[in-house]
Amino acid sequence: MKLIVGLGNPGNQYKHTRHNIGFMAIDCYLQSLDLEFIVQTKFKSHFLKIDNAIFIKPQTYMNLSGESVTKIVNYFNIKDILVIHDDLDLNFGNIKIKFGGNSGGHNGLKSIDKYITNQYTRLRVGIGHPRNIDDKICVSDYVLQNFNNIELEQLKQIFKITNSAIQSFISNDSLMDLQNKYNTKNIMHG
Hints:
By secondary structure, the chain is α/β, with parallel strands linked by helices.
């Protein structure tokens, strides 16, 4: 059994924020299959099981994502996990897959690490850093800003890649294969 986790915050006010790129990516993947989540209060998440894969969007808010993840990991005894999340250290449009590592200050990852350690695969989706845009914007404000219209259009291309990466993960591609296929310099520029 595999677990694919999209990180974000519940509620319409967060729907198109940079911090919700994990939710957006997993939604896009399921929409490509014409499937939708169900609300699963037992696991504090939006939840969908398809064959040997479980998809979730924790509904605990970002800082408590580990509460939802650990409930599902323990209930289904899952060892193979992919967490999709925003990454400030990658330029917008870049994707990087890695296993383990530190949270890089990401509160959703910190919460997951607290409950299940960091022994999972991460699909990092670059959102850029505010220092690259405007020195006056603090990080917490930046990640909670909505994507602009141009970025929302560009996300369509980015999500084609994340859809493929999710499918490759489900199909048991090795970590090295995933990294060779999907780690990019910049999707938006070739």
